[in-house]
Specification:
mainly alpha
Amino acid sequence: MKIKEAAEMFGLTIDTLRYYERMGIIPPVKRNSSGYRDYQIRDLNWVFLVTSLRKAGISIESLIEFSRLSQLKNEQNVEEAQKEILNEQLSELDLKIKELSKTKKLLEYKIDAFDAHIAQFNQGDSSSNKVEKLWEYNKEQERK
């Protein structure tokens, strides 16, 4: 598959695919007899993996290391090192999901209480002793 088709398949630009390869984020793509990149299923899997992990916020550095390890032949502990990178990224992603979930609950609460808060404010009933402490709401949610 040509680079243009691969880029379109994943909603990327040709420049992005070239960058991924140049930076070592994906392994080098084999070239055809004319010197053009010829994306195979293995290459497309790499592009899909990298694209998915980047959307989740996985660092470029981790992806480069994972890709670099995949290209080592007959080295000890390569698979274990790759698996460790994936496990570390999964742990980081779990933390991000937890934080996003807390933020989502806070936003849902603010949306649900928005009209009541505006009405209270418009009535002039917004003295500091009546204003809620959002950080306490957040702590309460963490206990649930």
